Structures are given as C-alpha cells and as structure tokens.
Amino acid sequence: MSYQQNRRKKPKLCGTKKPFQKKAAYGPDGFPEGAKTIEQKRREMEKKIIETFQLRPAGPWSRDVLNNEGLGKLLNAQHMVEVKKILLKIKPKNKGDIEKALKLAENTPQQRFIILNEASMQGPLTSEAFQEYMSLFKQILPNHWKQIYGKKIPTQITTACIKQMPELETQRAKKK
Hints:
The protein is mainly α. It has nine helices and no strands. Helix 3 packs across helix 6 (109-122).
C-alpha cells in the first residue's frame, strides 16, 4: 500500500476499529448546539412534576374554585409546597416509591379541602366531614377564618350549627 493510499484512510481510535467522530458544534453556553441545557431539563422536569401532582378538581364547583385567580392559585401553591415536602421525604427511586408519593400527594390538606368543598355543594356534609372541612378552612385560609369566625375554633362552630339544625327544620316546615 502506498503512502498516498494509507493517508486517505479515515483516522482510527487507538486499539479500536471505530473512526473518529466529528466534533459537535458548541454554542456560546458551552453545550452542543441542539442539546438541552441543564436549566431546560430542570424546567421540563418541574412541569412534569406539576402536571403529575397538581390539585385535581372533584367536580364542576371545585373546578371553578381551582380556576379562581386568588383562591385557586393560593391552594395550588400551598399544595405544591406539601408535595415537595413529601417528595423530599420519600425521595422516589422506583415505581413503588412514585406510587406511594402519588397516594400521599392526593391526601394533602388542600386536596381534601377541594373534595369536601365539592361534597358540600352537592349535599349536606355529615358532622364529622363538616368538622374536618372547618378545620381545613382554618388551616388553609387563616386570615379569612379570623374575618369570618374570629377566635372561635372549628368544634364551636360545628356545635352551634348542629344546635341550629332543629330550628331550621321547623322553620322550613312552617314555610311549606
């Protein structure tokens, strides 16, 4: 083989039969052009986490609550803080851990509040459910709680409502 023929062969890596690959064109950030940056990958991962763990409406009324500019954003923000705590605590590494995290994320106070809110719109809540709804209301919206109920605790309000029930029923019967 002549010197010219040998020179025309593609250069090879030491000890392998694979030829050198062309270098990728690098952008100003130091990453190969077209490749996603770490920041882009992080944003995509956050979007997937938000889509996976976001608050779910339990029906048409709770959908309206979640679409509300003020309350919906507040509930979603609080919910995502709770979800992040859960994820940091569990640190899901496999499918079983992810399923466990999903179940815990479905049981945040904000999601439970949405479920009870929807149930209260469809019919009266039991005294236990009403008690839970009121305590969640106080926990999630403390400033509104103070404006509406002052220093009362949820059990006081539940007891007062239960005491008023017979009076309300007799008033409704008189109207009929």
